[in-house]
Specification:
- With 40 residues, the protein is mainly α.
- The protein has one domain (2-39).
- It has helices at 2-6, 11-18, 22-28, 35-39.
- The protein is globular and about 25 Å long.
- Bound molecules: zinc ion (ZN).
- The site of zinc ion has 9 residues, from α2 and α4.
């Protein structure tokens, strides 16, 4: 779970991938609302 902290990508996208929704994560792209998205 440490990738959640140290990863660079969107947190929501990472969680989707972690829970097995890889295709959904790719389709959606960045959520635009988490702190990672807002900082970019
Ligand atoms: Zn995001």
């Amino acid at each position: 779970m440490h990738q959640y902290v140290h990863g660079r990508g969107c947190r929501w996208q990472f969680l989707l991938t972690e829970f097995g929704f890889r295709s959904e994560a790719k389709q959606q792209g960045k959520c635009g609302h988490c702190d990672r998205c807002l900082k970019q």
